[in-house]
Amino acid sequence: MAKAIALFPIHVIIGIGHVTNETVCKMIAHTNAITPTKLAEYLIQKFHNFSVPIQKAKEKIVDKSRRLLSEENTKLESELKLFRSITVNILNTNENRIKIASYAIQQQSQFIVKINHEKLNVLQAKTRIATKFNLHQLKVAVIQLQEKLELQPILYLKNSELALEKIEKNSQIMDPINVLKRGFSITYSNGKAIKDVSQLEKGAAINTLLFNCTIESTITKIKE
Hints:
By secondary structure, the chain is α+β, with helices and mostly antiparallel strands. It folds into three domains: 2-51, no CATH class; 72-179; 185-224, no CATH class. It contains five helices and six strands. The chain has helices at 2-7, 24-28, 36-129, 132-174, 176-181; strands at 13-15, 31-33, 186-189, 192-193, 205-209, 214-218. Helix 3 (36-129) packs antiparallel against helix 4. The longest helix has 94 residues, at 36-129.
């Protein structure tokens, strides 16, 4: 028995009850108790001592995880609010520009029509007092001028519509949401957009904003 205990690859503990003499097994064992009950108490205490720090570590990990999740959620909400604010501001600005351009086109068209009508009235007055010799030529000129006056506002309106479509298209292209949809992204460090490599350092945490998600990363290498 003593030889088996000595050669056993792990520690051996024994609890031989009702033995007053010291045995060889007790001498070579790692731990011995006077009774099996005392041995059980010894093991329970060891298990308790081992479980207490594990429980504390578990509570600490859970608390740290909750705080980290809360902080990251707060950062993400802040970034989303900022992104929405910027997007709404850009859209409102472009919408106001389109309204101003539309109003200007309307006013300019009315002004052109008015001026051309005045010119037409003047020309008609001249034709009434013109001689018969020039009456035919004046009528032809009036007809040509009428055709020109009828086409000019239409052409102006068409050109204005094309200009408005171009402005609207450019506004849609420059919309931050459409920019992100084309494969671009915005990377933040400590809540600020990264514009230069000097803002970065190895081991720092960064957030990359895509069209439909945010990616959290840790810098392992910086290559300029």
